[in-house]
Amino acid sequence: GAVVSQHPSRVICKSGTSVKIECRSLDFQATTMFWYRQFPKQSLMLMATSNEGSKATYEQGVEKDKFLINHASLTLSTLTVTSAHPEDSSFYICSARAIPGTGGPSPHGYTFGSGTRLTVV
Amino acid sequence: GQSLEQPSEVTAVEGAIVQINCTYQTSGFYGLSWYQQHDGGAPTFLSYNALDGLEETGRFSSFLSRSDSYGYLLLQELQMKDSASYFCAVTMNTGFQKLVFGTGTRLLVSP
Question: What local confidence, expressed as pLDDT, does residue A105 receive?
Answer without folding.
Answer: 45
